[in-house]
Design a protein that fits this description.
The complex is a heterodimer of chains A (453) and B (314).
Chain A lengths: L7 H16 L15 E7 L4 H18 L2 E7 L5 H12 L5 E5 L2 H4 L8 H11 L4 H7 E2 L2 E2 L2 E9 L2 E4 H8 L3 H4 L15 H13 L12 H13 L17 H13 L14 H7 L5 E3 L3 H9 L1 H4 L2 E4 L9 E11 L6 H11 L2 H10 L16 H4 L19 E3 L7 H9 L2 H10 L5 H15 L2
Parallel strand pairs in A: 1-2, 1-3, 10-11
Antiparallel strand pairs in A: 3-10, 4-5, 6-10, 7-8, 7-9
Helix pairs in contact in A: 2-16, 7-9, 12-13, 19-20
Chain B lengths: L1 H10 L5 H13 L1 H31 L12 H7 L2 H34 L2 H11 L1 H4 L2 H12 L5 H8 L11 H29 L3 H9 L4 H29 L3 H6 L11 H11 L3 H9 L1 H23 L1
Helix pairs in contact in B: 1-2, 3-15, 5-10, 5-12, 10-12, 12-16, 14-15
The chains are: A alpha/beta (453), B mainly alpha (314).
Chain lengths: 453, 314
């Protein structure tokens, strides 16, 4: 944000910093002489887990001290869209923070105003391996990395299941299927959306229906989008063409939703992102799709519920196993005057040691973009029950793919489909209004035509 | 001022500065200048927060999605052809007109009830009835949301006590529209009440006494004395409320987020969804500007009536 005016003292101090860093054996990429002694303003996402911010603050302060950079941190809440509005205002004003946290689609939306970070990502990928496909789809624009996938705030929305209720009413032992070990248990290969529907029916009849939202909030859009992908159905292809007409896979997935929503309470069409959490915490549901935030609240307010909650991937479909993923990124505005220091900080934040601290502080909520970093101890030790979040991150042995709803459609179209909840509205029209699928598809096509303008 | 300075300069060239100071002093002493200076901070605020954003919104609405090219009225014509936007226009009119009528009726009744109360009790009731209007709407709407909550609705719990089934307050299009209108009415009715109460207090008692002598009934007094005396205040209040209700954002945003199936979206919420959330700021600006011609029509009609009555009164 602020300029890093060079003074005689500043230059001397910068030189001293670089020499000192070299002498003490600090890793080279962390130290950037251009930014040393400068100022850096960072807008982080205000973490829902209270201790999440503190870990980030400590990491950044330690880095700032080592690199002699004056870092100003703001933790901006996403509640009430404050972070979204801050980003929009800074983009319009072309001033503000140097680094800003951005969720999902905002990277492609503001890519023209973001400093490319191919150099940072090149080094990180070289060190930790490939980034998950959802992060790559959202973080790259025109083949270039526009932002660095962030650990803080990134989350999966796999299943948070009440083990006892699922076993009692549907006869499915999710803990056995997905044990807290790097292997799949018996029955994991039968964890399909069709068997899920049978379980939904049984749990609904038992009075603990699955709390699956179908409004326009992200919890709803994310899981519905993953089901579409698991059936190999897409509304818009990677080139931006509408693919609904004569699309058997789309019909198949809509038929599935028609059958599934016979066992889901009607109130879920009005649900927001907190409705499913409350359903789990109050013991009124056997399953939700959510990160461990609902479980964390239950641990504080309803321990008996938390003790019976087990996190594991969402089911697989005929076209593959795709788990809903919602990503955060750290972008550097191109109007920043401290780009070099900003890159240094982002690279530092993405190192294994810092990622481990963030994951630990968030009780396992935060998800790094690299599959090679999903072996951290925190996910094995957090409880009760111990190991409940072991299978929360998608791990190599799950043979699943992290997925952001609506991909691979071009992001400028996908963002509109996502934020306006087109897929969930299609389900609502079919289930609530009892409209024939053809009419629903025709309506969706007209909407898509507008999104492609 | 220029002429005055020139004359002064011609007469006394050696002391050219003094007459100018004198002119400034005279100007400063003028009541109109003083009034302008005192209003200047407010004018600056209006210019910065109303006039500039308005023209900026017009500029934005005429750009393409990436804000790199002038597209004229393309955004407006595009919107008018969209099914969802046509729904938004219908809903905004339905929401504003229904809510304003409900608020006006309730406010009118409450004002009369309060006016009939003895002065001592009236103050207490007036304070209590104003409570909905003084609570920040975002906070009170959250409380309403808990009452309508899809899973734990307090209203449904009460209905269950009487053996009735649950109502999908926010999940069904009809009920959701009813819910947002109800909350807006609850929030805005006290404004009408206090305005009407002030108008009622300004009606001279002699008019009622004269009507009573002529044998007028209560309804006749209302029709031939009260309403004509209140017509201007009713018109102005309705206009103010229409403007505010059309531009409503928080109630719909918190209660329904425009759902179910876009059936409760208003201009404000739809503009936010399209402009900020979906990254199409020019289209969002165009959505919000659609309020302007609609409100301008209402304003012209209402203010013309007020002007006519004022002239007749003079």
């Amino acid at each position: 944000m602020a300029g890093n005016g060079m003074t005689r003292r500043g230059v001397l101090r910068s030189g001293a910093g670089v020499i000192a860093a070299g002498a003490t054996g600090l890793s080279a990429p962390m130290v950037h002489a251009q930014g040393t002694g400068g100022r850096l303003a960072v807008g982080f996402w205000d973490h829902w887990v209270p201790t999440g911010n503190e870990a980030t603050r400590q990491i950044v302060n330690a880095w700032a001290q080592a690199n002699r950079v004056d870092v100003q941190m703001d933790f901006i809440t996403s509640t009430g869209n404050k972070l979204l509005l801050t980003i929009a205002a800074e983009a319009q004003a072309r001033q503000g923070h140097d680094i800003i946290a951005m969720a999902t689609w905002l990277v492609s939306e503001h890519a023209r105003m973001l400093e490319p970070v191919d150099d940072v990502m090149g080094r990180l990928i070289g060190r930790y391996g490939a980034v998950n496909p959802a992060s790559e789809y959202l973080g790259k624009t025109g083949g270039r990395w526009a932002a660095v996938p962030a650990t803080s705030g990134s989350q999966y929305k796999g299943a948070a299941t009440r083990m006892d209720l699922m076993k009692q009413h549907a006869g499915i032992d999710v803990q056995a299927m997905y044990p807290a070990e790097t292997r799949l248990g018996p029955g994991a290969d039968t964890w399909t959306w069709e068997n899920f529907l049978t379980a939904a029916d049984k749990c609904n009849k038992a009075g603990v229906p699955f709390a699956l939202p179908c409004g326009t909030f992200s919890d709803a859009v994310d899981w519905v989008g993953a089901v579409w992908r698991c059936y190999g159905a897409e509304m818009v292809d990677a080139r931006g063409n509408t693919t609904l007409r004569n699309n058997d896979k789309a019909r198949q997935v809509m038929d599935y939703f028609a059958r599934l929503f016979q066992h889901i309470p009607n109130e879920m069409f009005a649900a927001d992102d907190a409705t499913n959490n409350r359903a789990l915490i109050s013991g009124r549901t056997a399953l939700i799709f959510n990160p461990p935030s609902a479980w964390a609240v239950a641990k504080r307010d309803a321990l008996q519920v938390a003790e019976q909650t087990w996190h594991h991937p969402s089911p697989m479909g005929p076209a593959g196993h795709f788990v809903p993923h919602l990503n955060f990124f750290w972008g550097i505005w191109n109007f920043s005057r401290a780009k070099s220091a900003a890159k240094g900080l982002l690279e530092h934040l993405s190192q294994r040691e810092q990622v481990a601290k963030m994951v630990e502080a968030s009780d396992g909520y935060d998800i790094p973009p690299f599959a090679s970093l999903t072996d951290l101890d925190t996910w094995s030790t957090v409880g009760p029950p111990r190991g409940t979040v072991f299978n929360y991150p998608v791990k190599p042995h799950h043979n699943a793919t992290p997925y952001i709803a609506i991909s691979p459609a071009p992001p400028e179209i996908a963002v509109q489909i996502y934020n306006q909840g087109l897929q969930t509205k299609m389900i609502a029209r079919m289930v609530q209004n009892k409209e024939p699928v053809d009419r629903v598809f025709a309506w969706a096509e007209r909407e898509l035509e507008g999104f492609r303008r | 001022m220029a002429d005055g300075s020139a004359i002064a300069a011609g007469r006394v060239p050696a002391t050219a500065g003094q007459p100018r100071t004198g002119t400034l002093k005279r100007m400063a002493r003028r009541r109109s200048t003083l009034a302008f200076l005192m209003a200047l901070p407010l004018l600056a605020v209006i210019a910065g927060l109303v006039i500039y954003p308005f023209f900026y919104a017009i500029e934005l609405s005429m750009l393409n999605k990436r804000m790199t090219r002038f597209v004229g009225i393309d955004n407006f014509t595009f919107l008018l052809g969209r099914e969802t936007f046509q729904l938004v226009i219908f809903q905004s009119v339905l929401f504003a007109v229904t809510a304003v009528i409900a608020k006006a009726l309730i406010g009118f009744v409450l004002a009369h009830v309060l006016h009939a109360l003895p002065a001592k009790g009236q103050r207490k009731w007036r304070g209590m009835l104003l409570v909905p209007w003084v609570i920040p709407p975002a906070v009170s709407t959250l409380a309403w949301w808990w009452l309508f909550d899809p899973s734990y609705s307090a209203f449904n719990w009460m209905l269950a006590v009487f053996g009735a089934g649950p109502v999908p307050w926010l999940g069904d299009a009809g009920w959701a529209r009813f819910a947002v209108i109800l909350v807006n009415t609850w929030y805005g009715a006290p404004f009408f009440m206090i305005m009407y109460l002030a108008a009622l207090k300004s009606v001279p008692d002699q008019l009622y006494e004269a009507a009573a002598i002529d044998g007028a009934t209560g309804i006749q007094k209302l029709r031939y004395v009260t309403l004509p005396m209140m017509r201007n205040i009713i018109s102005i209040t309705v206009l103010f409320s229409l403007i505010v209700t059309f531009a409503n954002f928080d109630i719909v945003r918190i209660l329904t987020n425009g759902g179910p199936q876009d059936r409760t979206h208003l201009f404000g919420t739809y503009a936010f969804q399209v402009g900020i959330q979906s990254g199409d700021i020019p289209l969002g600006a165009a959505v919000s500007l659609f309020m302007f011609p609609l409100l301008a029509v209402f304003a012209v009609l209402i203010l013309r009536g007020v002007n006519q009555r004022t002239k007749e009164g003079l």
